[in-house]
């Protein structure tokens, strides 16, 4: 009986029907239509990272946000390789009181600080192989145009009014807080100072006349949207958190500041005594990068997937969808939320001096090594703790020993002297398990391996859809371990190419192991692009044979020809991933002292 590898469905996904819901406003919003797209289809997809504040240099938490988006986006490109089907934006958030104050504290003009730190983010993302298609800076002219247009739309729809706004404001978090979210902590002088209960950052009392957005009107449409689309916010607990906020008080939102107080921002159109609130300014970046307000943006907007940290969920799950509905657009299609990295059990902060510099990590552990570590160990549902020993241990065991070892075992000239992809022998490994015969050599565990690897691409795709990249990597790692077990079990180094009894089975063992490696290399591309390239190149897999649609695992087993059989392997360019423990021992020691 022939079994068709399960993952073939990936290449034939349905074309998703997209509804723009233009003019849905607050009354006509249909939550059913909002959930009607099929992500795996050949419709367009648009991934975004948050835009990063430029008050301080990037740390590993920022890189993690960008890597999650990058991996999702790269996986999507493997499913739908068309260069025009996927967009991916990142950038820097450069306006607001926080940046204004940071520049003043550093004795710099805001533009100087912005240029400097935005440059650091750009450099980090280049080095970390973040495959974004746009990097936006909110100080760009195209963004000012978009924000002012968006403002004009809200105004023309009667959703902005002027009023006296009073409350606690936290400049570090750039948000207003109700009294219940403020606590008192001893300050430097010993006096009790008001701080945000959630972030611990100082707050100050603000009372001014501002433009106010009628947020309270959007409670019911937002509830309908979230209840009607239970998969919009992933993981689920964050969806519940957003629903919970809607059960609480949802007051109107101040969306401007007095320019005399906040000058570093985009002026309110036709009223330059007021500056637009930095969060409204920042959120509109997602529209700017797809060409808003030009009509073109409409072919990208509803296909959006925002990747964000848990601290900015309320802005993305409540304020942003309400603003979009207010402007006659649909809320974002998906919001993927991740938790934070702590360092040796503590929150990362400049004052604690424990901020981990991502660029030195990329240097120490290699770009692919560090990408693998963050995505393999980072679990969106809860905070993860960083320490150097953990990186060394993981990379040595999974990339150097397990994956690198497997490749080495199947390609080393001792074992594969002809340097080709050997033939698969169906007599040695019949597609029907349990057959007996003189030439049958495959055992029950070997069929289990074939089944596991055959279902791996679909399993991995499902994990990506559920924003569980760490689980996708765990599944790959388990299959790598199983493949090593297969090689160990059949010990090809004990078989002899010269023996007519051994040769077909020796070729089959290597063929199966190389096929498994081809699947692993293909599936690892979104996370470790260079390492996967090295692996696939060593196997002789060409650039056009690396998408998910091309991934026919072990076709000979399923009765089809295999294009790789008999093909020369690619050149040996050295170890796939050198072990770190010896070469990096100094580092672990340095970290402990
Ligand atoms: N500028 C806003 C976002 C505006 S988006 C329209 C902002 N910037 S930020 O620089 O403070 O944070 C950017 C991202 O980094 C957020 O998703 C945040 O959750 C993430 N992280 C900040 N610290 C982090 C960790 N320690 N760990 C993981 N991610 C972290 O918020």
TrEMBL record:
Record localization: Mitochondrion matrix
Sorted UniProt keywords: Aminoacyl-tRNA synthetase, ATP-binding, Ligase, Mitochondrion, Nucleotide-binding, Protein biosynthesis, Transit peptide
Main location: mitochondrion
Catalytic activity: tRNA(Met) + L-methionine + ATP = L-methionyl-tRNA(Met) + AMP + diphosphate
GO molecular function list: ATP binding; methionine-tRNA ligase activity
Residues of the Methionyl/Leucyl tRNA synthetase domain: 46-410
E.C. number: 6.1.1.10
Cellular component, GO annotation: mitochondrial matrix
Residue ranges constituting the Methionyl-tRNA synthetase anticodon-binding domain according to the UniProt record: 444-543
Key word Ion transport present: no
Similarity comment: family membership: Belongs to the class-I aminoacyl-tRNA synthetase family.
Protein name: Methionine--tRNA ligase, mitochondrial
Protein species of origin: Galemys pyrenaicus
């Amino acid at each position: 009986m022939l079994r068709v590898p399960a993952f073939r469905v990936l290449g034939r996904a349905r074309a998703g029907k997209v509804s723009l819901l233009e003019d849905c406003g607050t009354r006509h919003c249909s939550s059913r239509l909002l959930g009607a797209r099929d992500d795996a289809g050949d419709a367009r997809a648009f991934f975004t990272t948050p835009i990063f504040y430029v008050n301080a240099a990037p740390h590993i938490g920022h890189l993690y946000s960008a890597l999650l988006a990058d991996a999702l986006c790269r996986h999507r490109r493997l499913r739908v390789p068309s260069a025009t089907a996927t967009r991916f934006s990142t950038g820097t958030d450069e306006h607001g009181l926080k940046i204004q104050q940071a520049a003043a504290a550093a004795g710099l003009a805001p533009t100087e600080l912005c240029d400097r730190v935005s440059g650091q983010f750009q450099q980090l993302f280049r080095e970390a192989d973040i495959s974004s298609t746009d990097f936006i800076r909110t100080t760009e002219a195209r963004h000012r145009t978009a924000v002012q247009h968006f403002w004009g739309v809200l105004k023309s729809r009667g959703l902005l009014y002027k009023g006296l706004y009073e409350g606690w404001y936290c400049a570090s978090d750039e948000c207003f807080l109700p009294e219940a979210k403020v606590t008192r902590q001893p300050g430097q002088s010993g006096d009790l100072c008001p701080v945000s209960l959630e972030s611990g950052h100082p707050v100050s009392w603000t009372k001014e006349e501002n433009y106010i957005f009628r947020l309270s009107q959007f409670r019911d449409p937002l509830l309908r949207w979230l209840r009607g689309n239970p998969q919009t916010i992933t993981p689920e607990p964050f969806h519940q958190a957003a629903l919970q906020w809607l059960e609480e008080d949802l007051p109107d939102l101040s969306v401007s500041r007095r320019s005399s107080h906040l000058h570093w921002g985009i002026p309110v159109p036709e009223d330059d005594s007021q500056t637009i609130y930095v969060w409204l300014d920042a959120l509109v970046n997602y529209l700017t990068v797809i060409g808003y307000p030009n009509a073109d943006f409409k072919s990208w907007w509803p296909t959006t997937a925002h990747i964000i940290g848990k601290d900015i969920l309320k802005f993305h799950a409540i304020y942003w969808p309400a603003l979009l509905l207010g402007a006659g657009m649909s809320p974002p299609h998906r919001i993927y939320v991740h938790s934070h990295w702590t360092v040796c059990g503590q929150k990362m902060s400049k004052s604690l001096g424990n901020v981990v510099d991502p660029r030195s990590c990329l240097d120490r552990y290699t770009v692919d090594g560090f990408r693998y570590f963050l995505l393999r160990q980072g679990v969106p549902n809860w905070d993860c703790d960083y320490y150097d020993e953990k990186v060394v241990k993981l990379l040595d065991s999974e990339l150097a020993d397990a994956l690198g070892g497997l490749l080495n075992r199947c390609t080393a000239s001792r074992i594969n002297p002809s340097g080709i992809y050997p033939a698969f022998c169906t007599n040695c490994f019949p597609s029907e398990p349990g057959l007996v015969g003189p030439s049958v050599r495959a055992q029950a565990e070997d069929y289990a391996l074939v089944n596991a690897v055959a279902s791996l691409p679909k399993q991995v795709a499902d994990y990506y859809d559920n924003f569980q990249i760490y689980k996708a990597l765990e599944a790959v790692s388990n299959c790598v371990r199983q493949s090593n077990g297969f090689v160990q079990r059949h010990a090809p180094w004990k078989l002899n190419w010269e023996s007519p009894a051994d040769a077909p089975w020796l070729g089959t063992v290597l063929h199966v192991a190389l096929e498994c490696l081809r699947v692993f290399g293909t599936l690892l591309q979104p996370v470790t692009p260079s390492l996967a390239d090295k692996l696939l190149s060593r196997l002789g897999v060409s650039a056009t044979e690396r998408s998910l649609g091309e991934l026919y695992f072990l076709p000979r087993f399923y009765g089809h020809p295999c294009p790789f059989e008999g093909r020369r392997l690619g050149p040996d360019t050295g170890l796939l991933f050198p072990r770190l423990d010896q070469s990096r021992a100094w580092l672990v020691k340095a970290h402990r002292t």
